[in-house]
Specification:
It is a single chain. The chain is an all-alpha fold. Among the domains are: about 70 residues, Alpha Horseshoe (Serine Threonine Protein Phosphatase 5, Tetratricopeptide repeat); about 110 residues, Serine Threonine Protein Phosphatase 5, Tetratricopeptide repeat; about 90 residues, no CATH class. It is elongated, with a radius of gyration of 27 Å. The protein starts with 8 loop residues before the first helix and ends with a helix. It comes from Bacteroides stercorirosoris. InterPro entries: TPR-like_helical_dom_sf (IPR011990), TPR_rpt (IPR019734). Pfam families: TPR_16, TPR_19, TPR_8. Keywords: TPR repeat.
Length: about 475
Amino acid sequence: MTNKNLLSGRDKELQELAEQYEVAMSENKPFYQDADDLADLADWYGTKKNFDKAFEIAEYGLKLHPDNTGLLIEYAYLFLDSGKRAKAREIIENLPETYSAEAKVVRAHLLLSEGQLDDAEKLLDTIEDKEDLANVVDVSYMYLDMGYPDKALEWLEPVKKEYADEEAYIAVVADCYYGKGMTEEAIPMYNQLIDKNPYSASYWFGLARCYFEEHKFDQAIDACDYALVSDDEFADAYVMKGHCFYQLGNEEAALEYYQKAQQLHVLEPEFVYSFMGLCKISQGKWDEGYEQLEKAIQVNESEDASSPLLPNLYANAGLCLSKMGKKRKAHQYCKKAQKLEPKDPEAYLIEGRIYVEEGDYNKGIKQWAKALDCAPYADTWNEIGMHSLEIGYLDYAKVAFERVCELEPEFEGINERLTILYMTLHDKENFIKYNQKCVRPFDLKELKKMQALMESDNQEELATYMQDIIKALQ
């Protein structure tokens, strides 16, 4: 729970209000509050991604205060956030008051969700007090939520002198900078906010997001920890910690935090199944990987609309099945993936690998050619090279990685990959050429170990060692 003793101001009031509400409901007692407090409480639950409770509060409030505009607006936002645009439109079009700034902002939000930017801007231009801080913040966050940080800054810039020291103003500007990828500018603003309110989970999380984008994963984890000191149910912080640990190569810790986020209803179970399955694949635990991916497939297949995750799930499950010796079903899964998303290279890349491992090189290369038709980029060639490397098809790995180098000479890690390959292929000239280009050229100890493996017959162990080196260098 939120550590109430660390909160101040409205945050503390809402935490106390939430506790009072839950006690009243558990004891089946009446809970009367004014409409504004109930609208704020519904929003509070919504920001915590507890949408069931947020809807419950909004509907409870509307029973006490029928046709209250503030509650109806919050109710509409909850439907918008849940992707139920038709229901949100019904509420917005029947608001009893349509001329308030709040009513115009929620209507503009709906218009933007329908791609009607010009109409939204015209509507917002009719707001009378464009310099009121509450109006500026509401409009700015509306634009930011809909992916228009530049439009948000257009509202913020004219009132900068007046509100530059206001916490609400600094917060929305910091979030806009983050939205524009301007982490260098956002970080000092989040630190300024933390100085003002050191126990705000959202400010610490804002700082964590910036550090994550700058690949400062340890600092991002620290910032998430501070967010969780204030609110141990701040689910986004658990997701972010999961992402950080995954980037640091600690898949076990990543899974732990993803599961905590799942318990708080931020991540769907199929995400965790998918992540666990892909982790098992990376460890070569094909049976366990397939078991988890099949769970994710079953959940996604049960949805009314075809999930965009299914093609990737089918393809990777196909790889597992191939490793388990179930070749026919493996190809069936790859074909399912290709049928669902014929322009996605992933299923062609994986089926190409399966064919090559089966010894059918022509079919494998044809599948990789299809992947390149879908995405004729360095990334695709790199994937082909990595698949070839993992299965010991070193001559084709060389072709693929050289093509990456031609398309993008500065492609991350390409010099390291080519260095490893050319040493393995006993090509001293090219080995020296690419080793000199590495960010961290190989030292004598690494070279001796690789040489010993090359002199043995264990190509699988060699390939594994090469992959480990690549991961370390990345």
